[in-house]
Amino acid sequence: xxxxxxRDGFGLDELVCVERPQPEPGPGQVRVxxxxxxxxxxxxMMVRGEYNPRxxxxxxxxxxxxxxxxxxxxxxxxxxxxxxxxxxxxxRWLDGPPTADALRSTLGxxxxxxxxxxxxLDAHGVAPVPEHLDDVxxxxxxxxxxxxxxxxxxxxxxxxxxxxxxxxxxxxxxxxLDFACMHGARVIATTGSAHKAQGLRQxxxxxxxxxxxxxxxxxxxxxxTGGEGVDHVVEVGGVGTMAQSLRAVRPGGTISLIGxxxxxxxxxxxxxxxxxxxxxxGVFVGHRASFLAMGKAITQHGLRPMVDRTFSFGEARAAxxxxxxxxxQGKVCxxxxx
Amino acid sequence: xxxxxxRDGFGLDELVCVERPQPEPGPGQVRVxxxxxxxxxxxxMMVRGEYNPRxxxxxxxxxxxxxxxxxxxxxxxxxxxxxxxxxxxxxRWLDGPPTADALRSTLGxxxxxxxxxxxxLDAHGVAPVPEHLDDVxxxxxxxxxxxxxxxxxxxxxxxxxxxxxxxxxxxxxxxxLDFACMHGARVIATTGSAHKAQGLRQxxxxxxxxxxxxxxxxxxxxxxTGGEGVDHVVEVGGVGTMAQSLRAVRPGGTISLIGxxxxxxxxxxxxxxxxxxxxxxGVFVGHRASFLAMGKAITQHGLRPMVDRTFSFGEARAAxxxxxxxxxQGKVCxxxxx
Amino acid sequence: xxxxxxRDGFGLDELVCVERPQPEPGPGQVRVxxxxxxxxxxxxMMVRGEYNPRxxxxxxxxxxxxxxxxxxxxxxxxxxxxxxxxxxxxxRWLDGPPTADALRSTLGxxxxxxxxxxxxLDAHGVAPVPEHLDDVxxxxxxxxxxxxxxxxxxxxxxxxxxxxxxxxxxxxxxxxLDFACMHGARVIATTGSAHKAQGLRQxxxxxxxxxxxxxxxxxxxxxxTGGEGVDHVVEVGGVGTMAQSLRAVRPGGTISLIGxxxxxxxxxxxxxxxxxxxxxxGVFVGHRASFLAMGKAITQHGLRPMVDRTFSFGEARAAxxxxxxxxxQGKVCxxxxx
Amino acid sequence: xxxxxxRDGFGLDELVCVERPQPEPGPGQVRVxxxxxxxxxxxxMMVRGEYNPRxxxxxxxxxxxxxxxxxxxxxxxxxxxxxxxxxxxxxRWLDGPPTADALRSTLGxxxxxxxxxxxxLDAHGVAPVPEHLDDVxxxxxxxxxxxxxxxxxxxxxxxxxxxxxxxxxxxxxxxxLDFACMHGARVIATTGSAHKAQGLRQxxxxxxxxxxxxxxxxxxxxxxTGGEGVDHVVEVGGVGTMAQSLRAVRPGGTISLIGxxxxxxxxxxxxxxxxxxxxxxGVFVGHRASFLAMGKAITQHGLRPMVDRTFSFGEARAAxxxxxxxxxQGKVCxxxxx
Lengths: 338, 338, 338, 338
Hints:
The structure is a homotetramer.
Chain A: E1 2-6, E2 15-19, E3 29-39, H1 41-48, E4 64-72, E5 84-87, H2 100-103, E6 118-122, E7 126-128, H3 135-138, H4 141-154, E8 163-167, H5 171-182, E9 186-191, H6 194-202, E10 207-210, H7 217-224, E11 230-235, H8 241-248, E12 249-258, E13 266-268, H9 271-275, E14 279-283, H10 288-301, E15 307-312, H11 316-325, E16 331-335
Parallel strand pairs in A: 8-9, 8-11, 9-10, 11-12, 12-14, 15-16
Antiparallel strand pairs in A: 1-2, 3-4, 3-6, 3-16, 4-5, 5-7
Helix pairs in contact in A: 4-5, 7-8
């Protein structure tokens, strides 16, 4: 079977398609025939060596993928051949707060990921996906959607009447917009593109702020709430956005720190957080129980993830380059099967 | 009656004792004859103009004080003359998350504080104090003790078996040590003084790390927990300590951001917080309901706050200078009555 | 001004309209010109002496009413003449868990209620109502709507994808249906009337079970969830329904015990609750902070309460009789002004 | 190897010691050489056929046991031969709310239990025990101790200053007393024996009420709290005690419904629960994550469970009869090895 590897070093040039022997599931494992993969910015950083420069190589990249179980190892219960499943981002994080082991059990690094025709995963490391989604759509859920769900629902206790601020049109932000609307909350979205602003409004945003024209968008968001501040900020923008997020959020509100984009040192004062009792909650994707709860909600609402563009397996490099361009609105995906 | 005012400008030189007319309680208010005050670093910053340079003057400083009700305004229920009460730090924060109004209702700025022989406060803005404490001891509770309680109990869900890291021997840190022990948790304390280390151990610290010898004390704390990390960090040290706190805390753990000491911009990366799902919780003292719950626990355990030194009303400036020296271990207090 | 009193004894025959002097607001109080009242089954029980046979008389009944502030007592802040407000069910319950005092501070018994042209209330005991509602609609919120909100949101942590079971078409059940839909949850409703079943479906119920045909409706609800059980039961039916509710609810789920209808002794086994770790949560209407949060959500969604019928002030007795008939679907109201 | 079975029917007479072949661990499983077992009232009910009359036979009874891993099946990670472990009560409940599958995964019925010289368990179904405990002491933890921990800590949010009411001197009640004291809470215990009252006081009870003299012990407990009511009742007494528990508990407080003793129908009114917003929380032992957290706390505090008497493997029937007698104070145990 074929798989992509980051082989001899980091960088898109090192991403090569190789022939590997068919993997066999050990005790408690399953083999999945992968049908679709979605890309996250994390995957691009991983390929480039920016996410973890000490990651041993070769590595099969990509945390997010969906496929069909085609073989069961000894002792597997509750799954059968033919089941359609996603790989879970954190293979050994089932519920509750994360352990160090759970945090190290992530696909696409350090564990080989989903950009392969066949993968072997622990039975606890796969989960069913909503039936109304095709494979490509379902492949968008493991990282970006679950991050948004964990931030707003599992950790964020979102409720109707709340106001949520999301930044831009990336995968996490778009899912956060969807989930906030699903819970009867209002969404203020920021963007730097008139085109994307239109898309955000169509998807349900109550207000869109163009941060090119309104660099003090945190203050603007606060004004939109009548001066109270927003209940929840989904902070994905990294350096420079936190100061505005702290201006936007209400006393006692929550800022969810999301994903690797927020990295980098910042000349940052957290004093406003303590003066208004704000909670800054790190969110590292999420656990299996949240994934299942999210799946129920997505099924019930018939939610369809926003897919920007789907590439073929042979076009994997082009798919990564499309992510790198930042031009996408919605998820960038790869289809492995016809 | 006499009161101290920050009168014509900021600075200890501007702190003057003045004669003021006896204040009369309006509807829903009480007049308290103040018997003891305790000082916080915030009070010193307020006098110096460092806390809020736009604070209108004159201002009576000091958030923390205890006294006896000597007059009731119209419509007051549930209180009577002779009741011993503390002023609550946030006069209009009764329970639940803070409102903007609650955050602005703090004694010692913007509202006139307790460094006066008589003060008039809202009936909801005072609360009884544990009977076994003398007035000076009781005067230490409104700001420092309540901050520690809010951090660990109200917001922190502290439990037996947890490990808590406290920094130094300041008021909040000492109360956090006390409350952690009270809940059956273990405490790792940092200090830069062998003498204070001794005091911390006597008060119940499980381990003390001298940060002069161990600049990587965050890593050292983690090692003490067998590599897992501490459950809770009470972060009071401000610039430079956060990086160590992020190293000390376990995945899914909590860092309580406390008080004005943590101010100032910092060249800080929050990436570790999100990679391990850490919660950074701003703590702005706390509400009336927490004060009452804390009082029950202090009473039950016969806890006595650590008082470093008590000054007379006439020595108020010396008391502030003692706070400024940083030489104290425990609270610095002022007694107004014989 | 005129007011209804339960005067010399209990029973609808003792409900008389009397002339009372205009009440004057004391310190911290306001006088409200009442424009609309809504009735709850509790109010009927109060009149009949079934709610609290030891209630001292005379008593002005009715916990729920809306009106306009027409006079302020000394010391009132944050309110002004002309503000439209509701009286809060529990006058002295502002936030957090209830105190015994808060539980005793309820309108319509033991405190004189809203079925009067003018009432005097504590300033903290009134709150603004959503602007898009007329007075009659707004008058439905203090008891029934807040009970449903407290059950599902404040105490129940409702989320999208959850399944909620409501019983019948009473006020609490209808608001619970509304709030569940608002949060993206699915609702299974029980009823004993084909006509009401239709109304429940139109209002958003996912499934309606006619308990006349399906006495084992708890089991039927479980089947509808694929055997898992519902996440939340809003239990209003009292004796006999709890056993079915325990069959309907999923392991780890919640049953909200609501209101006085659930009274009466029952031959009841709670063993199923402990064998599946179910939480049975008593809900006593709710606090001011929940009322304000609910108001934001109602405003945002433009929710309009279901009003069954509105009577004039002179027809108060007929209004109570209509409640007693059980024929209503939605709230029964009384309009005091033209 | 030898094991006890409930073989051909229910009843202590049917409990027989049989020779079974040595079980071999399958994928993801381990074989444990059992060294000690503790008995719960549930185990007695299981033998008698009172717990689940439809339980298929034969069944090896007893949920609680400790031993040493002596063989690993394929694919087991994180465990090794020689590790001392307890079997977890619910073999497939790792964290979070229980699933139906988790609730069915309990040892000693429906799954073969620990009263055997060798048992095979899932690797996730065993967990380390505190080092300072001998095997007999450690064997008391899986059911009774974890139930108390789940009730007060995992689900009960116990804190210093709280008052907890426990009933009698059974295993759950004694551990609840221990854990409450560990968290700085006060304990009121009820008993019907002067001798046991003495034991409860020695173990840390603040107050002991003899329910033979004080049948209205719920009211008495309330009086002891100054009329407020206790924060938490650990309700194990079953029929007849709930009414007193509802009198004892404060508004907004919690009653933990524990174990099979609470079974049986009761002529019970839950009205007081809703009128004071009490939470009645079913507690079904608990999950793996709680077991680990409890173990940390027990280790830190050097807590030693109260063992009433230890029988030899050959005396298993006498051990069950001792449980049936109700004369014990503390746990009844069986030692399988020298």
